[in-house]
Write a structure and sequence with these properties.
77% of the residues lie in helices and 0% in strands. The protein is an all-alpha fold. It starts with 11 loop residues before the first helix and ends with a helix.
Protein backbone atom coordinates (compact mmCIF):
# COMPACT_ATOMS: atom_id res chain seq x y z
CA UNK A 1 0.00 0.00 0.00
CA UNK A 2 1.27 3.43 -0.89
CA UNK A 3 1.90 5.46 2.27
CA UNK A 4 1.50 8.75 0.36
CA UNK A 5 -1.94 7.88 -0.93
CA UNK A 6 -4.69 10.17 0.37
CA UNK A 7 -7.45 8.45 2.33
CA UNK A 8 -10.82 9.02 0.71
CA UNK A 9 -13.83 7.61 2.59
CA UNK A 10 -16.02 5.60 0.25
CA UNK A 11 -19.29 6.09 2.21
CA UNK A 12 -20.25 2.47 1.52
CA UNK A 13 -21.74 1.92 4.98
CA UNK A 14 -24.12 4.86 4.54
CA UNK A 15 -24.99 3.69 1.04
CA UNK A 16 -25.91 0.22 2.30
CA UNK A 17 -27.87 1.55 5.27
CA UNK A 18 -29.90 3.96 3.19
CA UNK A 19 -30.56 1.23 0.65
CA UNK A 20 -31.90 -1.13 3.30
CA UNK A 21 -33.71 1.37 5.50
CA UNK A 22 -34.78 4.30 3.35
CA UNK A 23 -35.05 4.23 -0.42
CA UNK A 24 -33.90 1.24 -2.46
CA UNK A 25 -33.38 2.88 -5.91
CA UNK A 26 -31.42 5.87 -4.64
CA UNK A 27 -29.44 3.70 -2.25
CA UNK A 28 -28.36 1.43 -5.09
CA UNK A 29 -27.01 4.41 -7.00
CA UNK A 30 -25.10 5.39 -3.87
CA UNK A 31 -23.64 1.87 -3.58
CA UNK A 32 -22.48 1.97 -7.21
CA UNK A 33 -20.60 5.23 -6.64
CA UNK A 34 -19.19 4.04 -3.31
CA UNK A 35 -17.87 0.87 -4.92
CA UNK A 36 -15.84 2.92 -7.41
CA UNK A 37 -13.96 4.98 -4.81
CA UNK A 38 -11.33 2.48 -3.66
CA UNK A 39 -10.43 1.36 -7.18
CA UNK A 40 -10.06 4.92 -8.42
CA UNK A 41 -7.99 5.85 -5.37
CA UNK A 42 -5.73 2.80 -5.79
CA UNK A 43 -5.12 3.68 -9.43
CA UNK A 44 -3.98 7.15 -8.41
CA UNK A 45 -7.00 8.99 -9.77
CA UNK A 46 -7.77 10.89 -6.56
CA UNK A 47 -9.89 13.57 -8.23
CA UNK A 48 -12.28 10.97 -9.67
CA UNK A 49 -12.23 9.07 -6.36
CA UNK A 50 -13.22 12.24 -4.50
CA UNK A 51 -15.99 12.89 -7.02
CA UNK A 52 -17.30 9.33 -6.65
CA UNK A 53 -17.16 9.60 -2.84
CA UNK A 54 -19.08 12.89 -2.94
CA UNK A 55 -21.65 11.40 -5.31
CA UNK A 56 -22.08 8.38 -3.04
CA UNK A 57 -22.59 10.68 -0.06
CA UNK A 58 -25.06 12.89 -1.92
CA UNK A 59 -27.12 9.92 -3.16
CA UNK A 60 -27.15 8.45 0.36
CA UNK A 61 -28.40 11.78 1.76
CA UNK A 62 -31.05 11.94 -0.95
CA UNK A 63 -32.19 8.42 -0.08
CA UNK A 64 -32.28 9.26 3.63
CA UNK A 65 -34.43 12.34 2.98
CA UNK A 66 -36.72 11.05 0.22
CA UNK A 67 -37.33 7.60 1.72
CA UNK A 68 -39.18 8.80 4.83
CA UNK A 69 -41.09 11.39 2.79
CA UNK A 70 -42.35 8.66 0.44
CA UNK A 71 -43.24 6.49 3.42
CA UNK A 72 -45.28 9.28 5.00
CA UNK A 73 -47.02 9.93 1.68
CA UNK A 74 -47.82 6.22 1.38
CA UNK A 75 -49.38 6.11 4.85
CA UNK A 76 -51.39 9.23 4.09
CA UNK A 77 -52.66 7.66 0.87
CA UNK A 78 -53.56 4.35 2.53
CA UNK A 79 -55.11 6.16 5.49
CA UNK A 80 -57.13 8.35 3.14
CA UNK A 81 -58.34 5.33 1.19
CA UNK A 82 -59.33 3.58 4.43
CA UNK A 83 -61.19 6.67 5.64
CA UNK A 84 -63.13 6.79 2.38
CA UNK A 85 -64.00 3.13 2.65
CA UNK A 86 -61.88 2.15 -0.34
CA UNK A 87 -59.91 -0.47 1.56
Amino acid sequence: MNANREYIPNNLVWAILTTLLCCLPLGIVSIVYAAKVDGLSASGNTAAARDAANSAKNWAIAAAVIGPILLIMWFMFVGGMAALGGI
